[in-house]
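Tip: read the tokens left to right.
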């Protein structure tokens, strides 16, 4: 089905639900995908245009140089870094090829489970209905099932909840004596308050069993460039991962972005501040909806439980798209109790967020 074949908005919705990107082609307001609307600045695109012939016609660099470019951005030695074609490539390698037993709290980013062969993943349910992580229980279960890799996403997707740094350090120590690698996915951390203080990057050399994964798509607003990286002080694990990626896994535009990024550090910091402001205002507006349970967010999106009087999340999501041309993420596909009562809303601009809240109230039938 092409964009010209839709007879109804409902048909368009069914098509969009099966896609994983390219949303800009279909002319709706995307409150589903999670990225920074305020970065990169226009100057970056001007630089791309100036270099477009070189970027298209020439081979990009390979891992050693790419790792050095990331290292310059995060102030870490290149030997600790492996650069992926998005974090998804690194997740696929760990879940699909390296780990014989992986444990992940749920609900979470589905790809860690989806990329693993059948029987290789243990899903650890988060506390319900708070969706908080019990570090001691998680560590005990990881040890019990003899997990080789434990994954923690912080802030978590879809809950948008952060795990405190001291808890992560405690978890790493518990797992270390059982030869379990702790992967901490910090893809949304830049949207939390004081990200430099709560990141585990500064602790990495103290923990041989910790690896940080980070998608750059979200925070830097570059989903189409596909850049992610991992950081670890464990040289053996870094070598295994480095040997598993293709020699040219990053394209020339992504390489050029990494070269340009250090010049726009302040612009990036300001963009994240704006994202936090918009998100906080959206949170306040959602909290005013009668009967809605709204989880206080640490990332650039908000996790909600529908009022008991409302229809299910899949029905509300579809109705929102059909009647208002807005798309949010319903969580019926997540591993959690009452999953069809929950949805996730990506924060956009203040004006778009206000329209979204009005439209939600309308489709839930809560207007006076």
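Filled-in amino acids:
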């Amino acid at each position: 089905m092409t964009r010209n074949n839709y007879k109804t908005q409902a048909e368009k919705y069914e098509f969009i639900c099966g896609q994983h990107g390219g949303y800009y082609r279909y002319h709706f307001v995307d409150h589903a995908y999670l990225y920074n609307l305020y970065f990169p600045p226009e100057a970056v695109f001007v630089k791309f245009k100036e270099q477009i012939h070189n970027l298209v016609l020439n081979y990009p660099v390979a891992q050693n140089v790419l790792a050095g470019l990331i290292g310059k951005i995060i102030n870490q030695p290149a030997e600790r870094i492996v650069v992926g074609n998005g974090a998804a490539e690194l997740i696929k390698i760990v879940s699909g090829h390296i780990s014989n037993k992986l444990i992940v709290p749920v609900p979470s980013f589905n790809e860690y489970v989806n990329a693993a062969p059948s029987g290789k993943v243990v899903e650890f349910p988060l506390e319900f209905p708070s969706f908080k992580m019990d570090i001691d229980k998680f560590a005990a279960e990881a040890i019990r099932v003899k997990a080789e890799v434990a994954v923690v996403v912080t802030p978590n997707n879809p809950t948008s909840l952060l795990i405190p740094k001291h808890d992560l350090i405690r978890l790493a120590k518990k797992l270390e004596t059982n030869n379990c690698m702790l992967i901490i996915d910090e893809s949304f951390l830049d949207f939390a308050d004081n990200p430099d203080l709560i990141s585990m990057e500064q602790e990495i050399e103290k923990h041989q069993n910790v690896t940080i994964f980070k998608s750059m798509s979200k925070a830097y607003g570059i989903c189409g460039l596909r850049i992610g990286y991992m950081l670890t002080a464990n040289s053996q694990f870094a070598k295994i991962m480095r040997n598993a990626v293709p020699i040219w896994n990053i394209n020339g535009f992504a390489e050029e972005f990494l070269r340009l990024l250090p010049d726009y550090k302040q612009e990036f910091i300001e963009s994240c501040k704006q994202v936090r402001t918009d998100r906080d205002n959206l949170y306040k507006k959602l909290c005013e909806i009668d009967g809605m349970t709204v989880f206080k967010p640490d990332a650039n999106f908000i996790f909600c439980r529908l009022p008991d009087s409302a229809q299910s999340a899949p029905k509300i999501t579809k109705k929102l798209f059909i009647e208002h041309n807005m798309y949010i993420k319903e969580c019926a596909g997540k591993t959690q109790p009452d999953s069809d009562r929950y949805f996730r809303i990506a924060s956009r601009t203040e004006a778009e967020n206000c329209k979204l809240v009005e439209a939600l109230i309308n489709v839930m039938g809560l207007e006076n």
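The first strand starts at residue 29 and ends at 30. Residues 3-40+266-363 form a domain with the Aspartate Aminotransferase, domain 1 fold (CATH 3.90.1150.10).
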